[in-house]
Amino acid sequence: MIQLLTTILLFIILYIFYNVYRSQISGSTSKINLPPGSFGWPFIGESLALLRAGWDGVPERFVHERIEKHGSPLVFKTSLLGDHVAVLCGPAGNKFLFGNENKLVAAWWPLPVRKLFGRCLITIRGDEAKWMRKMLLSYLGPDAFASHYAATMDVVTRRHIELHWRGMEEVNVYQTVKVYAFELACRLFLSLEDPNHIAKLGLLFNIFLKGIVELPIDIPGTRFYSSKRAAAAIRTELTTVIKARRVELEEGKASSSQDLLSHMLSSSDENGKYLTEMEIANNILLLLFAGHDTSTVTITLVMKGLSEHPSVYDKVLKEQLEISKAKEVGELLKWEDIQKMRYTWTVVCEFMRQNPPVTGAFREALVDIEYAGYTIPKGWKLYWSASLAHKDEANFEDVTRFDPSRFEGAGPAPFTYVPFGGGPRMCLGKEFSRLEVLAFLHNIVTSFRWDLLIPDEKIEYDPMATPANGLPIRLYPHKPIYGKL
Ligand code: HEM
């Protein structure tokens, strides 16, 4: 009851602030040729319509309806959670935003995200962000990461499957893969091995995740409040791990290439400045977040799709068995094996086209921007949409048909397929997730076939694409296969 009253009170205060803000904005923009569109309701703007489209499993509906209503296929204006937003549509919009990072636009995330993550890669801009990306990429990028960590991923994946899948008749894919992805990230970023420690962090992490897409109301009882406290508890845990590692590095008991944590502790910028413990903890929090939910969603949707397309499952199994058969008993996956998984990767790409795990992201206008004959004022937010580009007949012929061959040869036209974004803010974990998803699929497909317990289970975007019931399945183990443990 108290929570309800405080929420209502907060809405009233926000409403008053919003109207003052709106009158200032409309005063200053009244002579500007703004894109067509509507700001919707006070403060919440058109947020509910955007959320509803996601809950109904069709996030692109929000954009389609507005393109149709306002008659502008390239850009429209809206208001989301108190911010004026210009939505740039299709490949032209993606190209514009990805190509103008740090010139006309800069990365921007909604308030709850900024408050929860603190100072880290996604909340800083300019040269500082460039250095941080470069530093993180020298661990996570294709050269360093993929070539060194295929075997480690395979070890963690095999152990996970033995513990959580083997001997089970039924499994909830989303819940179980989430445990896997978190464990893998803890292992590769922090060298954490103790299952109890990982489980403790995992519990805190799940509370933390619930506040990321909430109103940032910091009052006991709200999800945001619990999330902020969980983030603080995770930071305290991480700081203990960071301090211990610092000592190990000083005493020569750990190496600078051991994992992401050692890499961060040992990297300095051109002025010899190192990250503070808080900055390291914030970036690890970010990477644990960015790196485990996205991959969980991708693996879950691929497993759903493979069960719905048995002939595709058979082709994937054939490719993976060829890799297994060429190996000694118990031999782990190598980088070269991952490179051979070409068909499997086209299948993953096609599932990510149909249901992009991340539907889009924001930027902020650094100056007044002229776009498609309209002016987008400085300070406005801009949004690009992966689901819109992926599900447009203009970009993909027979758009609803599942067809992995779209990703053979040169693949889709530039800026039409953007599950990882693009430009200087493109996903840092693209290589990590490719390796993770492929190592998992290799092990699961060569171990089991499966049936969906809820056929046609609805996909909801909240905000990431997730089957409404987490995808419960029934498992049918294969006979032991040569080359596996
Ligand atoms: C299938 C899995 C994944 C998908 C679909 C995905 C998607 C994305 C997208 C669309 C963006 C760009 C957001 C923007 O334009 O602002 C992004 C950014 C980012 N991703 Fe991923 N991601 C995935 C996995 C990962 C993993 C495994 C990691 C970490 C190991 C990661 C770390 C990041 C980081 C740190 C950023 C922010 C980059 C920056 O702002 O400079 N992602 N991701």
TrEMBL record:
Lineage per the UniProt record: Eukaryota, Viridiplantae, Streptophyta, Embryophyta, Tracheophyta
Family under the similarity heading: Belongs to the cytochrome P450 family.
Protein name per the record: Cytochrome P450
InterPro entries: Cyt_P450 (IPR001128), Cyt_P450_CS (IPR017972), Cyt_P450_E_grp-I (IPR002401), Cyt_P450_sf (IPR036396)
One Pfam family it belongs to: p450
Protein's membrane topology: Single-pass membrane protein
Binding site for heme: C427
GO cellular component term, pick one: membrane
Recorded GO MF terms: heme binding; iron ion binding; monooxygenase activity; oxidoreductase activity, acting on paired donors, with incorporation or reduction of molecular oxygen
Coiled coil segments of this chain: none
Main subcellular location: membrane
